[in-house]
Design brief:
The strands form 4 sheets. A 7-stranded mixed beta sheet has the order 2-10-9-8-7-3-4, sandwiched between helices. With 412 residues, the chain is an alpha/beta fold. Helices cover 43% and strands 15% of the residues. It contains 14 helices and 15 strands. α13 packs antiparallel against α14.
Length: 412
């Protein structure tokens, strides 16, 4: 049985780790930080409440706990997300990117037994998509992607021979922007009944910030994904479309797959989206600029940075660095961690077999990192490799070179 002292020790440990996290430099590309404003709902009573009255019907308040702030979801969250995506129909109820994936597959994949095509995991697709499609009763097929380009020959063959109900483009591990318009053209030519969904979990903030193209403009029927990677929101998911019919199909799937949509997190998403309207484009453009500069600096310092034959290293937030074998990679990762710099080790990046660092500059940028901070960060990577300056202050040196954050700091 846990006593009071043990609970106090746990609380003290949480507080100490929270202080460390507040000053850490996090380079995990699938993570970001919430602004102080967006954090507010998470410590309120709304965390405990259900909310189902999306239409704000005065006769449908079966659960009244969220009644006083309902418009933060129905108007602030949905309204701002709609304007950012230029999509009139938004479903903000998924609780994660995988939840949004499940709803999209179920709502758009047609009857069980049909074919769903996704991106092969070996070329950067999500590990779960093909398996989830099969669990939902679909036949699964995959298509390769290289440098953001879908293999047109393979896709054309699948479209002609299988007439898939859904093409689910789920590129997650990629240094390149996904080319969507050519895919839409192939669908129109070979299988007009096939729906095109783009899972843009990793690049959501870059798309909503207009630094990358909007898949809906390029011919996608729907798009969506998680809201906590390049988009600096809570752990949630969202789905967008310009079609009222497809919006209803997604809602019908959601109705049987999700009850609590995590009301406090959805309110948080609304506040994050409202903030993003003020700085989103500048932030998104800075993310890509920082990623390119970081790649250039690391390569100049002798790091093995993944790049194309023409030297192009990234069009997104992701920077990939090959360190060596597993032991050396772990040693560098630990050395950086001891400096307060957190990195992500992956073993199956496309075209980069074995352990490598999959780095993202999205959180660094969101908290104020610009050119000077990126230079300081590259220097700390050199320090970690050389085993010098073992003072644990690497993150502090980077943060000292950062400017003002992109969020509304006055709510801190």
């Amino acid at each position: 049985m846990t006593g009071i002292k043990e609970l106090r020790d746990v609380v003290d440990r949480f507080r100490a780790e929270e202080r460390k996290a507040a000053t850490a430099v996090n380079l995990v590309p699938s993570e970001n930080r919430l602004s102080p404003l967006a954090q507010l709902p998470l410590s309120t009573d709304y965390y405990n409440r259900y909310f189902f009255n999306d239409a704000l019907d005065p006769g449908f308040w079966q659960f009244r706990g969220g009644q006083e702030v309902a418009e933060i979801q129905t108007e602030l969250a949905r309204g701002h997300l709609s304007r950012l995506s230029r999509a009139p129909h938004v479903n903000e109820r998924p609780i994660s990117g995988l939840s949004a994936m499940m709803m999209a597959l179920a709502g758009l994949g047609g009857k069980p037994g049909g074919t769903v095509v996704s991106v092969g995991a070996e070329s950067g697709g999500h590990y779960a998509t093909a398996g989830m499609a099969r669990r939902l009763g679909f036949e699964s097929a995959t298509v390769p992607v290289a440098h953001g380009q879908v293999d047109e020959q393979r896709l054309g063959q699948l479209l002609r021979e299988r007439t898939p109900q859904l093409l689910y483009l789920d590129l997650q591990n990629s240094r390149h922007e996904l080319e969507v318009s050519r895919v839409a053209e192939l669908i129109k030519e070979y299988s007009p009944s096939t729906l095109l969904h783009v899972d843009c979990s990793h690049t959501m903030g870059l798309i909503l910030g207009s630094a990358l193209g909007n898949p809906l403009d390029a011919g996608a029927d729907t798009m969506g994904g998680s809201t906590h990677k390049t988009f600096p929101g809570p752990h949630k998911g969202v789905l967008f479309t310009r079609s009222p019919e497809l919006h209803q199909r997604l809602k019908d799937a959601q109705f049987t797959m999700l009850s609590s949509h995590h009301f406090a997190e959805t309110l948080s998403l609304g506040l994050a989206a409202a903030e993003f309207h003020h700085f989103g484009q500048a932030y998104a453009e800075q993310v890509i600029a920082n990623a390119r500069l970081f790649s250039k600096l690391l390569a100049a310092d002798g790091f093995d940075v993944a790049a194309d034959e023409n030297g192009h290293a990234t069009s997104t937030h992701q920077v990939w660095v090959k360190i060596g074998d597993a032991e050396r990679t772990d040693r560098i990762s630990q050395a950086l961690y001891e400096h307060g710099i957190r990195v992500n080790v992956q073993v199956d990046l496309p075209g980069l077999p074995g352990p490598a660092l999959r780095l993202g500059v999205n959180e660094l940028t969101f908290t104020g990192g610009r050119e000077a901070a990126v230079h300081a960060l590259a220097e700390e990577f050199g320090n970690a490799r050389a085993g010098v300056r073992r003072d644990g202050d690497g993150a502090r040196r980077v943060c000292e070179q950062s400017g003002p954050p992109f969020y509304f700091a006055e709510f801190s």
